[in-house]
Amino acid sequence: MGSYYINRTFFFDVHPPLGKMLIGLAGYLSGYDGTFPFQKPGDRYEQHNYMGMRGFCAFLGSCLVPFAYLTVLELSKSLPAALLTAFILIFDTGCITLSQYILLDPILMFFLMGAVLSMVKCNSCADRPFSASWWLWLSLTGVNLAGAMGVKFVGLFVVLLVGLNTIYDLWDLLGNLSLSLVMFGKHFLARVLCLILLPLTLYVAMFAVHFAVLNKSGPGDGFFSSAFQSQLIGNNLHNVSIPEHLAYGSVVTMKNLRMAGGYLHSHWHLYPEGVGARQQQVTAYLHKDLNNLWIIKKHDSDIDLLDSSSPVEFVRHGDIIRLEHKETSRNLHSHQHEAPLTRKHFQVTGYGINGTGDSNDFWRIEVVGRRAGKLIKVLRSKIRLTHVATGCILGSSGKTLPKWGWEQVEVTCTPYVKETPNSLWNFEDHINPKLPNISLDVLKPSFVEILLESHMVMIRGNSGLKPKDNEVTSKPWHWPINYQGLRFSGVNETDYRVYLLGNPVVWWLNLFTIGLYLLIAISTAVVLKRGVQLTSEHKELSRVVLCGGGQVALGWLLHYLPFFMMGRVLYFHHYFPAMLFSSMLTGITWDTLLKFFSQFLSPSTTARRVYGGGILTLILLITYSFYLFHPLSYGMIGPMASDPSSPMAGLRWMDSWEF
Amino acid sequence: MLGFLKKPVVVTAEINLSLVALTVVGLMSRLWGLSYPRAVVFDEVYYGQFVSLYMKRIFFVDDSGPPLGHMLLALGGYLGGFDGNFLWNRIGAEYSTNVPVCSLRFLPALAGALCIPLAYQILVELQFSHCAALGAALLILLENSLITQSRFMLLESILIFFILLAVLSYLKFYNLQRHRVKYMGLFTYMLLLVIAGLHFWHMLGDQNLSNVSLVCHFLARGLTLLIIPVATYLSFFYVHLTLLYRSGPHDQIMTSAFQASLEGGLARITQGQPLEVAYGSQITLRNVLGKPMQCWLHSHTNTYPIRYENGRGSSHQQQVTCYPFKDVNNWWIVKDPGMQQLVVSNPPRPVRHGHIVQLVHGITTRYLNTHDVAAPLSPHSQEVSCYIDYNISMPAQNLWRVEIVNRESDTDVWKTILSEVRFVHVNTSAVLKLSGASLPEWGYRQLEVVGEKLSKGYHQSMVWNVEEHRYGKSQEQKEREVELHSPTRMDISKNLSFMAKFTELQWKILTLKNEDTEHKYSSSALDWITMDTNIAYWLHPTSGAQIHLLGNVCTWASANVAAVVYTCLSLWYLIRRRRKIYDIPEDAWQLWVSAGQICVGGWVVNYLPFFLMEKTLFLYHYLPALTFQILLIPIVLQHLSDHLCRSLLSKSMFSALTVAWFSSVCFAYRTFSPVTYGEPLSVAELKDLRWKDSWNILIRKQGH
């Protein structure tokens, strides 16, 4: 993806641009020239200079360890807890694998942990507000939030975490009667400034850079509206000069007005048997193509309108027209057969030979919000095409057709006369040699419009990634139990294979700890609520469990539960942000638990020995398990683990692992 | 001993006359002219089918919710002597004389009417004045949409009734009995659980209570709030499954085991099959997924085309597909690779988990095979074929390992219907899978079957079960063909336990997706607040009489205002209290909070989940939420008059305004009552009713 920035061609991706911009920057600085195609996993890099980009990601990925260490240290004030967390992250095979390659996840996790660390640091500065360090950490929180949001939308969850923390914080300040309302107002404004305005500005600025850098036409054009495309150098709409008013005989393309709507398209393929009438397919296609061209003709005469002798006749609002597909000479046609996917709509087909069809080829052309008899403007008029015979309206349902339709988008004729962008179109290209070309600069959309549109397209793209019925997909409940990994490269025995799988010892420890933490937290809360008198050490421990652990546990919940409600395709690596929180929780919980039990032992030396021994055992266990599983992330060659002769065979503890 | 005789027997009856009056008026408003129109109205067409199926005892699955609502409707039909013989095919169709319209519609109407006294009681229990309670009841009484919805054979009014009843019961702290009609009830249940949890948490802080009594409290709540509802819920399903024992139109989405437990249908065929699959068994294999449709592993003499349309090549061997219809080509024979014979030995040698078998296609006697050739439509998977030896150094790879997915031990025997089996290819460890794509012309549009190499975990498309089964007896191919054509016969019956049936049915209800995502009157959740859309329920074929689901505009607007006022006031109070400024007395504050928990909470949990749902939404889905919102109006009004109007003058001004506002509610009710009750209207009157452009009032064109 970074290549696009270096070549400055426009592209479309479902994630916000920061991560890819940073990769692009790293590549640019390390001398990568943006020529490698990045087509499929397993391609060799050959002479291309990719180490800079990988190194950048790996560096950010390794920053996670000190970040987590500092966060836990701040939350628990306990060095062993922090060490335990750090070792968990250092020796987790999953984290290593994920940060070794050119991926967005290490960048996302870097910003995410950065935000959490700054938030925690800022909280610990709460006793001296408005000091330099307080301002520093508060604004760093804001910067990191913007970064996390800018890499993937998953960053939204950490924004939520920080937001909740801030609301709690403010509520606390509000209850502090020694604080005047003016002071409270200052606190409030400081947070608005650093946590809302600052990130928002950065986020918008990032998009500004994104659009400024990508000013050339590229493969992502078709996803955007005509107005958007006119901004891109090399796009045929850039600095266009086309005839302004639509006339009979013009060759046009029609674009659906829904976000990421396609061009009206047809091709030499029939609808398969059993799907309506066996006539030529009409679809919506996102890319520019010769098959998107249509000729506007009068419904009652078939004379060649491009004949130079005949006068130019403009199309007017309310006219009845016929649309002929330029390549195949079939008419846009609809009839009362059900559409292939949306059963309640009518099928739209290409019908007739060389332009002669029947009365079902007639469409009334209407401009939204215009009176009869007015001319129709290219690009700017919103068009509705009403089928004369059945009264239905031409629209695109947004559903993807199966293989027979080349996975293009379904076009239907909807009998429900509701005004939605689905059933509105505009004319984009317009070719008519008899009309004078007029330059159209009026289209220039404002920056806010571009920003909104690109977000709409991204959100739609995200929700469009739906799993199909018969596909095996990763389910959120698979993740914490490390049920199944993700194959990064290499399938066969002779390949160099990398398999993304968490260190099972670490992950199962994390999973167990979550249950343990719940138990500890509930019993602590009940004990406190019952007003049992505690010693000062126990009070400190309960504070760590409820406040420190609570924040981390909330982070885990916020980064994990929302995935259960998502309809899109999910992957194993989506769990890694949550896994970071869960590792910190492990550090805090075990440290507290060991401290609590060792306090019962009488001589303080034994107590300290038990406590230290416990932490050390855990660390050694993790280190040893890493020694066992390290080939997962550093790559392995040889027979698959399902083969008993493989050195990894003994480590295949679950049948679902495939390394 | 006879002490009780010495005391006089006294019955003290305290009758709240306004409550009685409200109930009577409510009953009148809901029951009046119940059998009009004598035609199918809107969703009656949908629920009516289920009532008919109940009457005929035919099994069905409905994804809209658990069966209690349907059963109650059916009870009405049963009491009215309905025989289930009516074709529910079209909205507006006239009922024939055998349909007891009145009794079918009676229960929803009764439930709708009883909501009025319930609303009254709830406000009284929330410690508000009788005046406010009366107001709430009247608002519910005069809400056109609630009236329309309760007067027909629909479920919403029953749902609202049970929701209100549950809230009231909890308030009265009786043993809470949860009922569920639709899954919306679940959200209210959650709300109650949270409120009960909060109450208990406060109780924990009470130092006067001993630990033991706390544990008792906790257990009692757990029992009433968790166990009783679950038990009730299960019992509804039990009744449902007991009543419906015949097979019907929805059979095919259930597993073979479930189908076999229904009378008729599959059970007729499978009755008396041998249970254990043995070497030499003749079987049909059904894919467990059942999507896009149920189908059986199939093969026929046609081969894969040498080249596909896109230029890729195939093995040109015999096609293996999944075929959605019963056919003699669906029969396969389980063969032991080590032996030649295709009959079951005596005694039969059962196939167990982990055994390696060959599957022989019954009619063509070719072996099920897969190899490293790309499948026709899913090029990442292996092609599955029946092996033909072309002498081109492509050896047969026809050994499959049987893996029973739902095994209890590793030596389990492969059982008919009950066992879910994966076939793992021995050479390539690919798994036999239904890809879901349907083959082009050359494959007769049957479904593609592939060998999945990346067999990631468990997916139903890779799991098969034996449906029809018999022990093969004939060694000769000719005899075997005759045998394959003959129907199976033998006698062993298999019955699933209730819990197994329940889990399956429950799972299917939750995962079943209706395809139709668009409807003329569907609306989005955001439209509901402002009532931008209505639903035309029924239109008289000749006169202009029509029935619409259309709310009382005045009530909807004021309910929204009440919610906003409540939220703003609460925030204001909360922030002021945080600064230790107390505007209202503590008990008034407690009252305000508890009322809000119920009403605003009820509104939120019954409304917000719709934003996450992907199914088709209608205006009537909003009615439960609306009911809670309406209850909030008198609460806010009373609070305003009690605490914010300090002088006598402002108090009387406020009362006058309230009266004026209430008369406007009555006016709106009067105005829209013709479309609520379906009275005939002229075109001009109809046009006058169209207050919003987005409303769809049906106006018949003149001269037709």
UniProtKB/TrEMBL annotation, chain A:
Q: What catalytic reaction does the record list?
A: a di-trans,poly-cis-dolichyl beta-D-mannosyl phosphate + L-seryl-[protein] = 3-O-(alpha-D-mannosyl)-L-seryl-[protein] + a di-trans,poly-cis-dolichyl phosphate + H(+); a di-trans,poly-cis-dolichyl beta-D-mannosyl phosphate + L-threonyl-[protein] = 3-O-(alpha-D-mannosyl)-L-threonyl-[protein] + a di-trans,poly-cis-dolichyl phosphate + H(+)
Span-the-membrane segments of this chain are 51-72, 79-101, 135-168, 188-214, 505-528, 540-558, 570-590, 610-629
Alphabetical list of Pfam families matching this protein: MIR, PMT, PMT_4TMC
**What GO CC annotations are associated with the protein?**
endoplasmic reticulum membrane
Q: Which PROSITE patterns match?
A: MIR
On whether Repeat is a keyword of this UniProt record, the answer is yes
SMART domains recorded for this chain?
MIR
Q: Which UniProt keywords apply?
A: Endoplasmic reticulum, Glycosyltransferase, Membrane, Repeat, Transferase, Transmembrane, Transmembrane helix
The residues covered by the MIR domain are 243-299, 312-368, 373-430
Q: Which domain of life is it from?
A: Eukaryota
Task: Specify the enzyme's EC class, one word.
Answer: transferase
- Where does it reside? Endoplasmic reticulum membrane
> Is Transmembrane helix a UniProt keyword of this protein?
yes
Which InterPro entries does the record match to this protein?
A: ArnT-like_N (IPR003342), MIR_dom_sf (IPR036300), MIR_motif (IPR016093), PMT-like (IPR027005), PMT_4TMC (IPR032421)
Q: Which GO terms describe its molecular function?
A: dolichyl-phosphate-mannose-protein mannosyltransferase activity
The UniProt entry lists membrane topology as: Multi-pass membrane protein
Q: Which Gene3D superfamilies match?
A: 2.80.10.50
- The record's EC number reads 2.4.1.109
According to UniProt, this protein's pathway is:
Protein modification; protein glycosylation
Q: What family does the Swiss-Prot or TrEMBL record give for this protein?
A: Belongs to the glycosyltransferase 39 family.
The protein, known as: Protein O-mannosyl-transferase 2
Which species is listed as the source? Chrysolophus pictus (Golden pheasant)
| Species classification | Eukaryota, Metazoa, Chordata, Craniata, Vertebrata
UniProtKB/TrEMBL annotation, chain B:
Q: Which domain of life is it from?
A: Eukaryota
Q: Where in the cell is it found?
A: Endoplasmic reticulum membrane
Q: Which CDD domains match?
A: beta-trefoil_MIR_POMT1
Record-listed E.C. numbers: 2.4.1.109
Gene3D superfamilies (UniProt xref): 2.80.10.50
Family annotation (SUPFAM superfamilies):
MIR domain (SSF82109)
Q: What is this protein called?
A: Protein O-mannosyl-transferase 1
Q: Which organism is it from?
A: Chrysolophus pictus
